[in-house]
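On clarity, I found the account of how folds are encoded harder to follow than it need be. An entry of this sort, consisting of the sequence and the corresponding backbone structure tokens, reads as follows:
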Amino acid sequence: MNIFTQRAAALLAFLAVPFAAFSAVEEIPVTTQSAEARLAFNAGQAALDRGDGQQANDLFRAAVAADPNFTYAWFNLSNVTFSTEEFNAALKGGELGAAQASEGERMLLEFNKLFLDNNFNAQLELATRLTGKYPNSVRAWMQLAGAQAALNRFADQRATLEKVMTLAPEFSPAAFTLGGSYLFNEPTDFAKAEKYYRKAIALSPGVDMYYWSLGDVYRGSNKLQDARRYYQLALKLDPKDLTSPIKLGHVNSFLGNFDEARADYDRGLAAAGPANAGFLAPFKAYTYVYAGDAATAVKALEKLATDIDGFGAEPAQRLNAKVFALTNAALVAMWRGLYDDAQRILARRAGLMRENAKVVGTPAFSNIQETQIAFFDGQLAAWRGDFKGAKQQAKKVAELVAGENNARKMEPYHELLGLVALRQKNWKLAVSEFRQADLTQLHNKFQLAQALEATNAGDEAQKLYKEVALNNFNTIDFALLRSEALKKTTS
């Protein structure tokens, strides 16, 4: 799991409202003597509540400028950074005043430090302790929900969010996060996702993020025109919003309106700040994948990894955006048989990831980077038919993650062995390995379906193919697999 994916899930579960909003709530204490810092901090919380990460970043930076010892503000800043280096720097900033901070603030800071170790089990333990110390804190329970989601414990996450809604009935982020859980996490339930998104809208009708999230429910239900309507409504609420045009681009991509989709993405990129633009720009390249032109997509993504230098973002932000673009390019190249391109791209990507590790400067983070490098090298070896090399890389992955306190740490190992077995047509072994991989990833779900189909488990295979074909959320996996999965569901 990518560190930015992990943090996004945690941030979604940590959206905030002013502390005094609910009489029954006793929040984690906030430690600052600066009225100016507290004002910026509260404004940053409001920006988080409406999903404006860039504005929240600016406001939390203002808070720590006014009070460099403001641990809570540094913690919140770490949640809205755009690179691992910024994230790590914010955590180091939080240490400045940690001795004077409340115990809850120190626990929050420690929670985010554990992202750099992939230590999800310890995060869950810490969040549980946090709710024990602050049993009436909405923020503490939301933190626990994020930790549960990171471990794919979605039933527990949903129960926790229901508790938050009981504790603070007017707290719209709990309903919003619960809607997201039913939309994205297994078992999905689009009717419940719509119910909770509509509840969030009823509580906070002016938040554009809630409307485009409701549009996502319709997109996931394959009601693309309804989805488009809610994205357009969100854009009317905030004409400067960068997300709604991007989501309109997704709908046009799925409908085959590629020129319109590229124009939508251009509008979204124009509205995005420099820090966001590099992470959003790959969507435009996905249109070529949907159109069946993998070579052009690879070239566009490689070019993007160079062009990012001119976007105006900070160096650390550029580095992570480049890795993201090259990761997408490598996946396209491998899945479409452009193996020489994939090898070149992965070499470039590995250099950037190692540069990233040097900047962060911790052995644990360096280990995470080396794990990802070995994992992708193993994939390429398997695609090329070098099964011995792929298994060697799988063994290396297992060795690298051995020390992690993370119940999901072996998923990449099983994914590599599953890919080897699939390519060798060892169908039963492939089924066994993919069942132990991360099945929230569409490519693993698709490959498990392929192996099941080959073992005559047609009903389960068809179910999985349908889930992939109608996923309708724009990832590189979906761009690569949608067309083939659709064919499987109609064959």
Notes: Confidence is low (pLDDT under 50) at residues 1-23.
